[in-house]
Amino acid sequence: MNIAIAGLGLIGGSAAKALLRAGRACDGYDLPAVLERATREGVIRAAANSFAAYDVVLIALPPDAAMRLLDEGNFKEGAVVADFCGVKGALERCVYAKPRAYRYVGCHPMAGKEVSGIENADAALFDGASIILTENERTDPEAVRLLEGLFAEMGFAAMPHCTAAYHDRKIAYTSQLAHIVSSAYVKSETADGFPGFTGGSFQDMTRIAGVDEELWTRLYLLNLPAAASELEGLIAHLQEYLSALRQADETTLRALLREGRLRKAALDKERRIL
Amino acid sequence: MNIAIAGLGLIGGSAAKALLRAGRACDGYDLPAVLERATREGVIRAAANSFAAYDVVLIALPPDAAMRLLDEGNFKEGAVVADFCGVKGALERCVYAKPRAYRYVGCHPMAGKEVSGIENADAALFDGASIILTENERTDPEAVRLLEGLFAEMGFAAMPHCTAAYHDRKIAYTSQLAHIVSSAYVKSETADGFPGFTGGSFQDMTRIAGVDEELWTRLYLLNLPAAASELEGLIAHLQEYLSALRQADETTLRALLREGRLRKAALDKERRIL
Predict the structure, then answer these.
(1) Which residue on chain A is closest to B243 by alpha carbon?
(2) What proportion of chain A, given as a percentage, has pLDDT over 90?
(3) If DSSP codes are grouped into helix, strand and coil, which group holds residue B132?
(4) Which of A107, A134, A268, B206 has the smallest CB count inside 10 Å?
């Protein structure tokens, strides 16, 4: 099985290293300097100058570049082509805009670091992590099975399947909203001089405030209604706490915090079961 | 030096264990069942039936109970009395409402767990943590030095000093706001079925959603203007992101995320320096 990885940044580079660890050498596609480094370090076998020779192509590019490649790439007939973008509906719309000779599966690895680039790529990045596979009536089950085999080799431990719409709604909440909250949280003037004044809550709340604005702006724009709706919902909930604080309404504030505690306990239970 | 600890929950129990580890046995004050357990397990030497015999009293009670004790307790003349509450202005106002024979120092250990009670007390809870000491023109420097010695023995690694007002402003942001955000965050309907759809951001954002609503309602009410003002500020920032999303305003969204990234980098730098 001939595999090419398009985009050898943190995710693509880690995918190449993880597959190499499992005994599979892949070819790579990226800018010349990255390809040179990846080849020299043995992360990839060779540069992929065309995709026509590959049975499997894993696309680890930012969403616009991924869509361009999915639209214009010269893939082998029947090739399994998967992308790793953080939004899935927009990718599907691009792929299904016309008939394709390749078999597409949208994927989203739930792993990352706060750093990027092949210099931070890590064969163990996906160990124990989850990768979401999106499916619809056009998805080829054999292509899915083939990818699941590769993902297992890469170290992934969970592979939930869902529609692109379901993925985009969930991710708008678990990831996209969290990144906006973190980004907004650091903007208080009170943040200066915080060391010594926190036991960890502040660090947790702000860990992901440093996102790459180019990539994330596109991810939000490509998942607009879901992202906006989650943010709207959170602001509405926060307004309830604010109104209780402003009125020094102890009963309401207690009820709001209690509701949060019970909800959190229910979610923790769900996590233990699944 | 005779030391009594009032309140043998997670914080008070851990303080007793940490001091014991350092070779100091303390007496304790709590409900009979807790005292019985603490004595049986050797966490304390004996029950403190009156505070009149103690050179140092550490108060690890919820804020209202702490204020009652500070107001009505029969402390030895010149005794060093410290409380560990999460708000400090309200405590100072209570203490300084009339002349006191004891020497008061407001303290706030920056350590905790998501569980409570003496059954979770841990001699190592404070190791490497920070404890804030609040000072004003009435604070006795010798009392502060004595406490700093004890806190060092307990494992604390940093002891910032500040006024109660400064403390309450900082804590409203680094801790109180974070707990409201976490509590509000879990309330989205999209939270159901999250396992497999997160790589860690969601867990960080919601770790502290399960606060004890009795204790925290009081902490918010006792720090009202600061807590409300931080929440107001965060909501205003979040509205900017929401407005950009609603208008699909890529330029503004990119600028907002970029500002967050730069702010986060500046804060990380501050953390490395301090």
Answers:
(1) A228
(2) 92
(3) strand
(4) A268
Please give the C-alpha separations between residue A192 and each of B74, B174, B266, B270, in angstroms, as whole numbers.
40, 11, 9, 8
> Is A128 near chain B, with CB under 8 Å?
no
CA distance A67 to A89: 11
pLDDT score recorded for residue B186:
97
CB A175 within 8 A of CB A184: no
Q: Quick check: B272 contacting A, CB < 8 Å?
A: no
Does pLDDT of B228 surpass 60? yes
Q: Which residue has the higher pLDDT, B91 or B113?
A: B91
In this structure, is the dihedral angle defined by the CA atoms of residues A201, A202, A205 and A211, taken in order, positive or negative? negative
ipTM: 0.93
Asked if B71 and B94 touch (Cβ cutoff 8 Å), the reply is yes
Write out the two tokens for A150: 């590769």
The beta strand positions in chain A, using DSSP E, are 3-6, 27-29, 56-59, 80-83, 103-109, 131-134, 161-162
Question: Domains of chain A (ranges plus CATH)?
Answer: 3-162 (3.40.50.720), 166-273 (1.10.3660.10)
Q: Which of A126-140, A194-208, A214-228 is predicted with the least confidence, judged by mean pLDDT?
A: A194-208
CA distance A67 to chain B (A): 18
Query: What pLDDT is attached to residue B274?
Result: 47
SS3 sequence of B82-114 = EECCCCCHHHHHHHCCCCCCCEEEEEEECCCCC
| pLDDT reading at B102 higher than 70 | yes
pLDDT tens, residue by residue, B27-82: 999 999 999 999 999 999 999 989 999 999 999 999 999 999 999 999 999 999 99
Query: Which of A112, A173, A255 lies at the smallest CB-CB distance from B190?
Result: A173
Nearest-angstrom CA–CA distance, A198 and B274: 13
Contacts of A12 (CB under 8 A, 6+ apart): A5, A6, A28, A30, A58, A60, A61, A84, A118, A121
Question: Dihedral (C-alpha) B199, B203, B206, B211: value to the nearest 10 degrees?
Answer: 180
Token readout for B80 is: 């060093």
- DSSP bridge pairs for A162: A134
Angstrom CA distances, A74 to A1, A32, A77, A104, A105, stand at: 18, 20, 9, 14, 17
The pLDDT assigned to B243 comes to 98
